[in-house]
Each structure stands twice: as C-alpha cells, then as structure tokens.
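Checklist before submission:
- one chain only
- standard amino acids only
- sequence pasted in full

Submission:
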Amino acid sequence: MTWYDPAASARSSLAMSGLEFLRAMVDGTVPPPPISRVFDFRPVSAEVGDVVFTCEPDESAYNPIGLVHGGLVCTLLDTAAGCAVHTTLAVGVAYTSLEIKVNYVRPVQVLPGRVNTLTVHGWVTRPGRRAAFAEGDVRDAQGRVVATASSTCLVMGAGS
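Returned file contents:
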C-alpha cells in the first residue's frame, strides 16, 4: 500500500481555509490522507458546514462474523463530521474530535457482484470558536441509513 506524505498535506492545510482545503482534496489538488487509502474512501463534495464522502468496502473490512466492521463505519462518520466542521474554519484554525456517539441501524455486508458504495454525509449543527457540533449518517447503495452519529470537535488555533 502506498500513500502521500501526510505532513505535506497538513502544512498546506494551514495556508488555506478549511473549505478551500477540503475542496482541494475533492478536486485532487491536495492528496488525501493515508487513512483514506486504507479504508478506500474519498471526498465527493464540500460546502460550508456540509461534506459528502463515498466508500466501497470489501471483505478486508469484515469482522469475525462476516459483516463490515463497525469501526470502519465509525471512522467514516468521524471523518465526515470533522470535515464538515473543518469547512467552517478560517486559515490557521484547526480541529480535533472530542467525542462521537454512533448509532448503528443495520449491518453492512459486501455483496459480490453488486455495487457496495456507502455514502457518508456530515453536516454542522452548531459552529463555534472553541467547540463545534456536527452530525452525520452513512447510507448503503440502496439509500438506507446504516448508521448515524453526533460529534463534538475542539476548535483550536494552529499549533495548539
């Protein structure tokens, strides 16, 4: 597995607003973080307070009982909620997750020969200077909600 140097992307993020950075990732100007290669997810759109990612899990994401591991779904939700917050931040301002609560609604299974795309949507419910709040959901290829989340992010100046 190969990926781009995450330090280079992190440095470039400090010179852009969060929205500019996420849009640069969507259009391929800024390379995605290594975790997106591990879990095969990619940004699709970024607007102020709203992002969409897609993911196509395969059997490598299975847990011992033959379903996509909940940790992958949680990672997708944490990414979407955090990136939605990121789109609201000015140049030099960063965030990190403080907490996330996930509700799993239905299992995710890879079905050979079928499209297995998960769509992950994150949106800000309350922006803030010190803490920001976001929600998200994951939907399967049929548009059914498989999980939801609420998240709190710490907003901090760069280098905090």
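Reviewer check: The helical segments are 6-13, 18-27, 34-39, 70-86.
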